[in-house]
Amino acid sequence: MSSNIEELVGNIFTKEDISIQRTISKYMKLLFKWHETNNIVSSSNIDYVIKREIYDSYQLNNALSGNSFSDIGTGGGIPGIIMAILKPNMRVDLIDRKTTFINFLSLVKAELRLENVTVIKKDVLGPNIFFDTDTVVIKNFSNKKISKMKFEEKFSFMMNIIKNNGTASKAYMLTGSPVLELSEECVSKFSLSTTKISSPFFSTSRYIAEVRFEDTIDS
Ligand SMILES: C[S@@+](CC[C@H](N)C(=O)[O-])C[C@H]1O[C@@H](n2cnc3c(N)ncnc32)[C@H](O)[C@@H]1O
Fold first, then answer.
1. What pTM, to 2 d.p., does this model score?
2. CATH number, domain at 130?
3. Strands of 68-72's sheet, edge to edge?
């Protein structure tokens, strides 16, 4: 497993220092080791997870601006841990409601000595939620409460949660092609801009949706 991970990480993070590549490989090894017993990532296929989830997280990291970040529904730390490794001087809050993920993320923080990371066990749809970073990121957030909603309703619901509960001036969602079908009203309400992530590995593309709340129209 190890050499495969190092090679895959090396091929994606070619522009990063070898020390960064080593830290990302170490994170991947911890992730897949825990996955064997705790099911903490979307797939057991190392090749797929690194080329899809980690590559896309890297593109998101390179596209976003901000000084402090909350990754909500972070699960095994995707994309938050990748961002924390690549932005060691910026605060990254990793928020999830499940103990399994919180325990894993606490271990990753300690093992990788990520002093910029704060692991927070919280229900982001519950009362007293407050995001005190300037930026929020969200990827594959899934929850019973929103699972039956259509994409536009889900998107608006989550963006309103972020906007109304904290200090974030912008949010980024790493998502699929349904973002291209949002109504003009929704695009305009959230001052939404969308960037396609070109993948050298897959024909289906993912997208980075950027919302700026200072420009958001209240309704
Ligand atoms: C499909 S996973 C995605 C994890 C990660 N972002 C990724 O892309 O691999 C969805 C995550 O959202 C978390 N989640 C769902 N509802 C939540 C809530 N109300 N508050 C906090 N976390 C929640 C789940 O525990 C889970 O870790």
1. 0.96
2. 3.40.50.150
3. 117-121, 91-96, 68-72, 135-139, 170-175, 206-212, 193-197
